[in-house]
Write a structure and sequence with these properties.
The structure is a single chain. By secondary structure, this protein is mostly helical. The chain has three helices and no strands. Helix 1 packs antiparallel against helix 2. The longest helix is centred in the last third of the chain and has 23 residues.
Length: 129
């Protein structure tokens, strides 16, 4: 029970270059593409600048799709003034997440507060009767 030589894994890797199918596509020595830039990528700029730790630099490409805004943005900016080893920083960041959720659901929050106010005044009116 012998296998054909072409079915053996790795068969022909040491074949002559003329017999190898990839030879016309190989470059000797390998060269980069003509328009390839070996330097760093062009740095992205945006306004407002995203929040990062002052001890770190921004990567060449980053996301600024949802910039910090409102009270939660102020809290995040304040949090990034503290070093990473302070619990105060992480507590401010977690609290700013909660405030951000409330800011994005302000309509629901105001509706809920209106319902509580109506209920409060209704109970108060019933007690005064």
């Amino acid at each position: 029970m012998t296998q054909a030589r072409t079915q053996v894994p790795g068969w022909g890797v040491d074949a002559r270059p003329e017999d190898r199918p990839g030879v016309p596509h190989e470059l000797e020595p390998p060269r980069p593409l003509a328009d390839a830039d070996p330097g760093l990528a062009v740095r992205q700029t945006s306004e407002p600048r995203p929040l990062v730790d002052p001890s770190r630099s921004l990567t060449p490409v980053y996301s600024a799709a949802t910039p910090p805004r409102g009270l939660s943005g102020l809290m995040r900016r304040a949090a990034y003034r503290y070093p990473t080893y302070r619990a105060r920083r992480w507590m401010l960041l977690m609290l700013s997440d909660r405030v951000d959720a409330l800011e994005h659901n302000a309509g629901k929050l105001l509706g809920g507060l209106a319902m509580v106010a109506v209920g409060f005044f209704a109970v108060r009116a019933l007690r005064n009767r």
